[in-house]
Design a protein that fits this description.
Mean pLDDT: 91
CATH class: Alpha Beta
Number of domains: 1
Shape: globular
Strand content: 25-35%
CATH superfamily: P-loop containing nucleotide triphosphate hydrolases
Number of helices: 6
Bound molecules: adenosine-5'-diphosphate, magnesium ion
Radius of gyration: 17 Å
Order of helices and strands: EEEHEEHEHHHEHEE
CATH architecture: 3-Layer(aba) Sandwich
């Protein structure tokens, strides 16, 4: 379960998003809606503890993440949160498979090549396992970032506009894969978007005011 209380998220001590109270039960999914500039990315990055909150508490599975900083924050994030960024952040010097193994390593989880290969298979990337991420197509890269978000069996998966740039068929495909991946570890999905096509997959909505 994710619980947020008295949150102000922003930069240099100035809030751009305020969220007094928010609860997302484990396994339920929430769409984060709002105009460009309303703070969707800021909120997701704060929940991931990539960005320190200006104030407030973010509690995931009973752990107050905001109290953790540095390596402690990194290791908690790696074990509990999967992130699908708007643009791919992969290590291009190593292969697709090695990128997944690095993700396990970063979380302090035993490197399990069989599990990584199973995820690549499920996401239709087996044939690309030895390629470098830079050589993948856009759709393949996106599936790789979903595999990486899934590999450590997180309780929360955050997606920043994962479907906005896709045509209808690719959008449906990414949504199906995200839901499958979330179901595999009974994770909650929290997806920021202005893409109305995916609304029906989410039980909860969070509308951020402001922005353009
Ligand atoms: N690194 C940053 N430093 C200062 N302000 C930022 C930074 N990143 C985003 N902002 C500002 O925070 C607000 C929300 O941005 P963002 O979270 O990216 O919105 P969205 O994802 O909804 O488009 C905007 O006014 C933006 O200019
Ligand atoms: Mg954004």
């Amino acid at each position: 379960m994710l619980e947020i209380r008295g949150l102000e998220a922003g930069y240099n001590g100035k809030a751009v998003v305020r969220l007094a109270q928010f609860t997302l039960p484990r396994g339920e999914h929430c769409l984060v809606l709002g105009a460009s500039g309303s703070g969707k990315t800021t909120l997701l990055y704060t929940i991931a503890n990539l960005l320190a909150p200006v104030r407030g508490d973010i509690v995931l599975e009973g752990e107050n993440m905001a109290a953790r900083r540095g390596r402690d924050a990194d290791s908690f994030r790696a074990r509990h949160i999967g992130i699908v960024h708007q643009t791919l952040h992969m290590v291009n010097a190593v292969s697709v498979l090695q990128n997944l193994l690095l993700t396990q390593y970063a979380a302090g989880i035993r490197q399990d090549a069989a599990a990584a290969l199973r995820w690549l298979e499920r996401l239709g990337l087996s044939a690309q396992k030895d390629e470098k991420p830079v050589s993948l197509s856009q759709g393949q890269r996106q599936r790789l970032s979903i595999a990486r978000a899934a590999i450590n069996a997180p309780s929360l998966i955050l997606g920043d506009e994962p479907t906005s740039a896709l045509d209808d068929a690719a959008c449906e495909n990414v949504m199906r894969v995200l839901l499958e991946v979330a179901a595999a570890s009974r994770a909650s999905l929290m997806v920021a978007t202005h893409d109305r096509r995916i609304e029906r997959h989410f039980q909860h909505r969070l509308l951020l005011e402001g922005g353009a």
